[in-house]
Specification:
The strands form four sheets. The protein has a five-stranded mixed sheet with strand order 3-4-8-9-11. The chain has a two-stranded antiparallel ribbon with strand order 1-2. The chain has a two-stranded antiparallel ribbon with strand order 5-10. The chain has five helices and eleven strands, in the order ββααβββββββαβαβα. 24% of the residues are buried. The model has no long low-confidence stretch (mean pLDDT 92). By secondary structure, the chain is α+β, with helices and mostly antiparallel strands. It is globular, with a radius of gyration of 19 Å. It has one domain.
């Protein structure tokens, strides 16, 4: 392996790709792995990726493949950088009460996949945050694939930088106090564009 190689280009898989050994396929496909590993949509990690995908759908950028280590989660076709955070009242484990909604907003260093270097400046990297809440409160009927059960709160990053400069997390009430706009699925793209324009004024 040479010392200077760029990042691997990830081609979107279809799910039908088989596992194989010694030139022979076995009776298991990538889709089998996906359903095994990703069926618990209420799991915190899985719910976070699902929320990111839902926002990407609304923004019209749910193409290609997701990169784990980008400095921000999504970019719109106009180049607006978007950070997606999620929280939920209902978890997959036993609960005596509904969970308190909380979002990670900590500024951070960033790794550049193109250069394989860290930017050591601790800051928020996006133009806009989208806080995604799986708002349904009934464990028996919760369905993360039902977009009516989600609410989205859009806030320009400049507001966080000004009013929560070094804050590492924030609750929903804090997000609302900072002026985040609540929208449903189908209205996220417009809200993101509006929030980004406010940063340019």
């Amino acid at each position: 392996m040479s010392a200077d190689q760029g990042p691997i280009s990830v081609k979107r898989k279809t799910g039908i790709e088989p596992f194989h050994q010694s030139g022979q396929t076995i009776e298991a496909t990538l889709q089998d792995y996906w359903t095994w590993g990703s069926s618990n949509l209420l799991d915190n990690t899985e719910r976070g990726m699902l929320a990111e995908y839902i926002v990407a759908l609304d923004l019209g950028v749910a193409t290609g493949a997701r990169y784990e280590w980008e400095a921000y989660d999504l970019a719109t076709s106009e180049g607006v950088k978007v950070e997606v955070k999620s929280s939920a009242y209902i978890q997959s484990w036993h609960q005596d009460r509904l969970s308190t909604l909380r979002f990670n907003i900590a500024p951070h260093e960033a790794w550049d996949a193109e250069t394989n270097e860290f930017d050591r400046t601790v800051r928020r990297r996006s133009d806009v945050y989208v806080f995604c809440v799986l708002a349904h409160k009934d464990q028996r009927s919760i369905d993360p694939l039902n977009l009516d059960q989600w609410a989205f709160y859009v806030l320009d990053t400049r507001v966080l930088d000004a009013d929560a400069t070094h804050q590492k997390s924030i609750g929903l009430n804090g997000v609302l106090k900072l002026g985040a706009k609540k929208v449903g699925f189908g209205m996220i793209q417009e809200a993101v564009q509006r929030a980004h324009k406010s940063t340019q004024s």
